[in-house]
Design a protein that fits this description.
Layout: H1 2-6, H2 11-21, H3 24-43, H4 50-63, H5 68-74, E1 82-85, H6 93-104, E2 108-111, H7 133-136, E3 149-150, H8 155-165, E4 180-181, H9 187-191, E5 198-203, H10 206-222, E6 231-234, H11 241-250, E7 255-256, H12 268-280, H13 288-295, H14 304-320, H15 327-336, H16 347-367, H17 372-383, H18 385-393, H19 398-423, H20 429-438, E8 455-458, E9 468-473, H21 496-504, H22 515-534, E10 537-546, H23 574-586, H24 590-601, H25 635-650, E11 694-695, E12 701-702, H26 711-717
Parallel strand pairs: 1-2, 3-4, 5-10, 6-8, 6-9, 7-8, 9-10
Antiparallel strand pairs: 11-12
Helix pairs in contact: 2-3, 4-6, 8-22, 10-11, 12-16, 12-17, 12-19, 14-15, 16-17, 17-19, 18-19, 23-24
Keywords: ATP-binding, Helicase, Hydrolase, Nucleotide-binding
Protein name: UvrD-like helicase C-terminal domain-containing protein
């Protein structure tokens, strides 16, 4: 449909072209296009998609030469004398039509671009626009200037790009590829750059690939001084970005642009508020499933174990009273009224009782006629999630990233609620909640993502006009990049432009392109994407892939003959390093204990409150009446733990053993200093906490990273 609109083909003309070319799919598309226009004209007559908007603007500019009304519609653009187009290789037919319309008004056009890095081919982009600019502008003479020098990259980068572009069709005759790398004033420093210009990574699994990349980026940042914002990871498609974003977050590498956009009903932060509002407004019945969803969500804050204990407590009370109702019925009844869990003196009961009171307050507000914005604000403010998520978002790591995503979803939900109230002040709250729960599309957002101080995760088109010191081209798998499968085999949209040109010139229908030509065109588009990503690098290009029995590297990995050295003994992020040092110190390594003492002197505790792991509780957890007692440890177990404690103390640090045998609570050391946690009677005593040591990406037990950790100490201890 977009190609038809860009070519100025009406539904009737499209059907005629389909019958002429023997393509029934074009005839069917013409019928759908006619119906689509009728419906849009009735519901949204003033809205256009990108192709329609370009065609509409070009028509106004073209008619403005003779029509005074269209000339007045141009406004200040009517006095335009020069039009400069950057990255002209990304222009579509709609852009070309607009340039031709301005050229007809006598406007001079200057177009700049490189057809070897065009990335818009799958959207109808014309990589050959610069070569055919004269015909686009109405047959005027065009002066061509080839820029002779390149100001970005290193000689090895130019060799790589030359090898890649040699397999791409020459849209401009290939003369532009003769540009040489300029010798800047800092040429000696560039030649002495310690970074390998092109590096390759072959990992045994996708998880290992993400860990390798994260470790490499941390090395560049800590050891080579490359800012986070001067590094980028590029993948063939956006579907691969969330996986790398999770791998980098686990290694405490700040990222931007890697999170997948989801609908408000699916985002965990906003989904909990929508579920509570749906129950309050009786859009959803409060049954056992809805009660379980609310209790185990962010509003209820119960895990599966806590929910099971809550159900058992309700069931015990029912049996003691001589009742026979099931746990599901009791759960729904208790959640339906305020104070329904008041008789259960346990953490799970108190949390469930707060949720029941919150739902009761929301019901009373809805009965008073509160707007959807007021209702959602009551659920959000009284739940206490604001302070909890804000505190977690101030830290770093996986938990902080999840808190930030939840806060973003809540902000988007309130923005949508505000727009709904402003547009329809008297509309009921039920309609907004119902519409959002039925909408599977993510909300539009014009807010820029915070990229300062973060590694950029993007696809090649998002890197146009940007440069980075280090560019990692990830996911170079066979069949993924380059992906040589033909495009548009269902509707054959690529053949429409040739059919239109032949029909308008009175020529017979052109023959279908052979399979070899189609494959060459697809290969050219894939290599252009790769060349675009590689051309953004200033100091280093890193190519990475997964190589195992199921996944094979791409042929593009052949451009990186150099492989990085073996991975470091200890990770370069504080959580993983502290965990590895604690593990080694518990095994009797005095060097590791000394390193931990040095970290303590630098102000790096083994665990902090604002970190990437869950917060430690401020008091020992109270045992529920329905919970089982913790089994007593045997004398042999106590002797083993006491021996490990004395060994760690003799090494100069309060390091605990991480062996977690049956019945042993996980130890939680509060500081790296020996005097911070002394055992009584020669035996360590600890309380099981939620934010104990966690597992790092390489399998080592680790503690969370505090904010503002000294990078020099981390780099020195990595080994």
């Amino acid at each position: 449909m977009m190609r038809a609109v860009e070519q100025g083909v009406e539904p009737g003309d499209l059907a005629m072209l389909g019958r002429r070319a023997g393509r029934a799919e074009w005839v069917a598309a013409a019928s759908f296009l006619a119906e689509y226009r009728e419906v849009k004209e009735q519901l949204r007559p003033t809205q256009f998609d990108s192709a329609e908007l370009g065609a509409y603007a070009a028509a106004i500019v073209r008619r403005s030469v003779h029509d005074p009304d269209d000339a007045r519609a141009l406004g200040a653009l009517g006095d335009l004398r020069l039009l400069v187009v950057d990255d002209a290789q990304e222009a579509t037919e709609a852009t070309a039509a607009l340039l031709g319309a301005f050229a007809a008004r006598g406007v001079d056009v200057v177009a700049l671009g490189d057809p070897d890095v065009a990335s818009n081919g799958f959207r109808g982009g014309r990589a050959d626009l610069l070569g055919s600019l004269g015909s686009v502008l109405g047959g005027v003479s065009v002066e061509r200037v080839d820029l002779p020098v390149v100001h970005r990259g290193r000689p090895a980068h130019r060799e790589l790009l030359s090898s890649v572009t040699a397999h791409i069709g020459t849209a401009l005759g290939g003369a532009h590829r003769a540009a040489r790398l300029v010798a800047p004033s800092d040429a000696p420093a560039r030649d002495a750059d310690p970074l390998e210009p092109v590096l390759g990574i072959e990992a045994p699994s996708p998880a290992a690939e993400g860990a390798w990349i994260a470790g490499l980026l941390r090395e560049r940042h800590l050891l080579d001084g490359v800012p986070w914002s001067s590094m980028a990871i590029v993948t063939r498609s956006g579907a691969e970005l969330p996986g790398f974003a999770r791998a980098l977050a686990a290694a405490e590498v700040p990222v931007s642009g890697g999170s997948a956009r989801v609908a408000l009903r699916d985002a965990p932060g906003s989904a909990s508020l929508l579920a509570a509002a749906a129950v309050v407004l009786e859009l959803w019945p409060l049954d056992a499933e809805a009660a379980t969803t609310l209790l185990t969500g962010p509003l209820g804050r119960l895990d599966r174990v806590g929910l099971r204990r809550l159900r058992l407590a309700l069931r015990h009370e029912e049996l003691a009273a001589g009742g026979v109702r099931s746990a599901d019925e009791l759960l729904v009844e208790a959640l339906s009224v305020a104070g329904g869990f008041a008789t259960i003196d346990a953490p799970a009961g108190r949390r469930a009782n707060r949720l029941a009171g919150l739902l009761d307050s929301a019901r009373r507000a809805a009965a008073r006629g509160a707007t959807v914005e007021e209702l959602l604000w009551l659920l959000w403010h009284d739940s206490g999630l604001e302070s909890e998520w804000a505190g977690q978002a101030d830290g770093s790591g996986v938990l902080a990233d999840e808190a930030n995503r939840s806060l973003d979803a809540v902000v988007a939900l309130f923005a949508a609620a505000r727009r709904f109230v402003e547009r329809e002040p008297g509309a009921p709250a039920r309609r907004f909640v119902g519409d959002v729960l039925q909408n599977a599309l993510p909300e539009d957002s014009l807010a820029p993502e915070g990229g300062a101080g973060a590694v950029v995760l993007a696809t090649p088109p998002a890197l146009i006009g940007r440069e980075f010191d280090v560019v990692v081209i990830a996911g170079l798998q066979d069949g993924v990049w380059p992906n040589l499968r033909p495009r548009g085999t269902l509707l054959h949209a690529a053949s429409l432009s040739r059919a239109v040109e032949a029909a308008r010139a009175g020529m017979p229908e052109p023959e279908a392109e052979p399979a070899s030509a189609v494959r060459a065109s697809v290969r050219g588009d894939e290599l252009r994407l790769f060349a675009l990503a590689a051309s953004r690098a200033v100091r280093q290009i890193v190519l990475s892939c997964t190589s195992n029995d199921d996944e094979q590297p791409s042929v593009l990995m052949g451009f990186a003959p150099v492989r990085p050295p073996a991975r470091r003994r200890r990770p370069l992020h504080l959580r993983g390093m502290v965990g590895a040092l604690r593990r080694d110190a518990a095994a009797g390594d005095r060097e590791a204990a000394s390193a931990l003492a040095m970290l303590a002197e630098q102000g790096c505790p083994a665990r902090t409150r604002r970190s990437g792991t869950a917060r430690p509780s401020r008091r020992p957890r109270r045992r529920s009446s329905t919970s089982n007692a913790t089994p007593r440890r045997s004398c042999r177990s106590r002797r083993r733990r006491s021996t490990a404690w004395r060994r760690a103390r003799s090494a100069g640090s309060s390091i605990t053993s991480h062996s977690r045998r049956r019945g042993w609570p996980r130890r939680s050391a509060r500081s790296c200093t020996p005097s911070s946690r002394r055992p009584r009677s020669g035996r360590a005593r600890s309380t099981s906490r939620r934010s104990g040591p966690t597992s790092s990406g390489d399998g080592a037990t680790s503690a969370s990273r505090p904010a503002g950790s000294p990078n020099a100490s981390v780099a020195a201890l990595a080994g």
